[in-house]
């Protein structure tokens, strides 16, 4: 083992121990909120909602919830964040925000401008480094592993400049902001990372791959899969381990790994350790501490105050719109295995911000969560309440039962002959009995979801399954300019996306069942 590897292993062990806190999560949450309120008390937002009065309250969490409304992106942008793009100072966070992360835009606005303050950059960097150190310390990998590097398959670090503002992909923002000593731990080089053309970036990574000693890969499953397949093909090897023998850990996020897991086990080998992280444009929210954990642990004391709204008909409409009567819960009020929409207040000036994700707590004592979907990514045409979590579970089971490799899929609802229908599109690169597959998928969904099972006997009369090559999903994303980085194919298509998707398939001479 090299001296560099020995030093890194020591740093991992020391940092993972020092980052532990003896304060309770509830206390850390209160301390975090207090710090956020103090910092932003003299901003326009802080004055509008009288943060100073909240700070003098005996229960600042309740006072904060009573005074400050809940915002989705459109509301906070229209009322506050649009001023940030004009260069206004002290709007929702002290000073001038100069960097904005452009979201992948799978729902709502086609492009969202999420403010990234210097404090948020520091928080994300700390959480990122802490996540790596924590799980490396937990899983106790072989000594040779510590001489390897991390391959970060993210977006371009080349940011677009508008006046004196910078905008771009979050992974590119964070990669470009890393200290020089941390850059030594990562590949590809800054020169390759700046490449904005995704195909050209992959070509450059592939040509350099044999020079690198990679131990960890981070990235969205779809793009990591494509990269690994192309490397194997380019070098005419049987396995990625012929190129990177120390590759042991794959850190994924942004989309459920379940539909990909069967194929990835074949592609990467059964010995790979899968670890999930929850890094959104609004903050680094959670990470999996070890491969035996059932969920990801919330990141505490790092510039984010969390709230949770039960994701049910009391709080949300059938279209996933937050109702006026909705009430948010704090960390001490949540229950295990119930679905919640997550709300963040952050050190980038997001306040009671509904980010659109839904989660479940798998372990209350450890505050471990799993992502279950999006508040507007579900199907409920007639009360079937079919969630993305149900869909991911069903595809995972189908893969195992029928020995398939369905990685990409999407679904939408439509009205057919005065009854409702779910139309599925499954990415499969082999011949499959459509009728058999449709029947099995329907049966699994009936078991997973009682509401779906009930409606399949009444208003939801039909279910259709279309089988297409996986490459068509990526082809559609390319013409949407949503290829690479943190982009992922929407599991439930909006009306606008349905039109675009069907038009694209028609050009490929693909007809809907």
Write the layout of secondary structure elements.
Layout: H1 3-18, H2 25-40, H3 44-48, H4 51-55, H5 60-67, H6 73-79, E1 99-102, E2 113-116, H7 118-139, E3 149-152, E4 160-162, E5 165-168, H8 170-176, H9 180-183, E6 186-187, H10 190-193, H11 198-208, E7 214-218, H12 221-235, E8 249-252, H13 258-268, E9 273-280, E10 283-287, E11 296-298, E12 304-310, E13 339-346, E14 353-363, E15 368-374, E16 378-379, E17 386-387, H14 388-402, E18 409-416, E19 419-427, H15 434-448, H16 450-455, E20 460-468, H17 471-479, H18 495-507
Parallel strand pairs: 1-5, 3-6, 3-7, 7-8, 8-9, 19-20
Antiparallel strand pairs: 1-2, 4-5, 9-10, 10-11, 11-15, 12-13, 13-14, 14-15, 16-17, 18-19
Helix pairs in contact: 1-7, 12-13, 13-14, 14-15
Give a description of the structure.
With 513 residues, the chain is of the alpha/beta class. It has helices at residues 3-18, 25-40, 44-48, 51-55, 60-67, 73-79, 118-139, 170-176, 180-183, 190-193, 198-208, 221-235, 258-268, 388-402, 434-448, 450-455, 471-479, 495-507; strands at residues 99-102, 113-116, 149-152, 160-162, 165-168, 186-187, 214-218, 249-252, 273-280, 283-287, 296-298, 304-310, 339-346, 353-363, 368-374, 378-379, 386-387, 409-416, 419-427, 460-468. The strands form four sheets. It has an eleven-stranded mixed beta sheet with strand order 6-3-7-8-9-10-11-15-14-13-12. Strands 2-1-5-4 form a four-stranded mixed beta sheet. Strands 18-19-20 form a three-stranded mixed beta sheet. α1 (3-18) crosses α7 and α14 (388-402) crosses α15 (434-448). The chain is globular, with a radius of gyration of 23 Å.
